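User: Quick sanity check before I run a bigger batch. Here is a single chain. Can you write out its predicted 3D structure?
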Amino acid sequence: MIRQCNGKDFETIYSIINDAARAYKGVIPADCWKEPYMSREYLRHEIEAGVVFWGYEEEGELMGVMGIQDIRDITLIRHAYVCTSRRNQGIGSKLILYLKTLTDKPTLVGTWADAIWAIRFYEKHGFRLVSWEEKEKLLRKYWSISERQIETSVVLADKRWEE
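Assistant: Done. Predicted structure follows.
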């Protein structure tokens, strides 16, 4: 079942993100890696900034989370993670398909440029890589990330973005 997460889910969201983010260790630049990958403070900041997390739950346990954030004229898909033990079982696909129904705005997602599996996942779900120039502009306009992360990231857009 997919449900909106609430305050009681905070520690579980934190755990899922940091468990799943281990896949990025050694893939993203070492100077961008942190332990834990996402701190509790940053997770709180993201929620306070309007990221609404949705979770995939089985037998009362969250197995994956994905955030959605409306910013001005667009929607961002944020912080998409599935427990390591439950990867490649369709949980991420169920979440993104559901989140896409929650907005009629153009939707963007950012990820690390070297995370080829993440890029392929988003492409499989109807997103396309934007040009390098457009990526630079979009990351500066809609995200609050470091210059280093801008250098080493990509942005993918859905079909509504192209319209």
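The chain has a mean pLDDT of 96.

User: Great, the batch can go ahead then.
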